[in-house]
Write a structure and sequence with these properties.
By secondary structure, this protein is mainly alpha-helical. It has two domains: 63 residues; 82 residues. It has five helices and no strands. Helix 2 runs antiparallel to helix 3. The model has no long low-confidence stretch (mean pLDDT 89).
Length: 161
Amino acid sequence: MTERPRYGPEHIVRGLSLPRRVAHLVAGLGGLTMAAAVGLLWATEPGVLPGRTRIAFAAVIGIGLTWAGFAGWALARRPLFAVDRVIAAWLAVTFSALAALGMVTIALSRATAAVVFACGGVGATLTVAAGTMLARARAHRRTLLARRDELERLQRDQSTH
């Protein structure tokens, strides 16, 4: 008879690898640094900023704090089955689409058609890249969940024999 481990499949995949932990740490510190830098810039402005600038600063601060919060959650919780990758990809898609919308909106009000198309192209490229990351993250998660199901099935089959 084969000796069975004392832990299940979820225990095996619970930990994040060192490169994943470092990536989360870099993303979190980057987001926190970005939010702090823009917040300090905003706080030290001598006069009242225009409305669009305040909206842009608030959006950048919100994005930075979101990445920092996500990284803290991922490092503290060590999510199972690559759910952190899926969440990060969704954040990237959302923020890329918002950035594209913002760039095109500003370009429409202030620039030539060539600049509008350039901004749209950059925004579309970022959003497509983020969408590709999302598709890959979801495929990776499906693969891990299938492996988990297979391990659980094998464990059940071994326990019945």
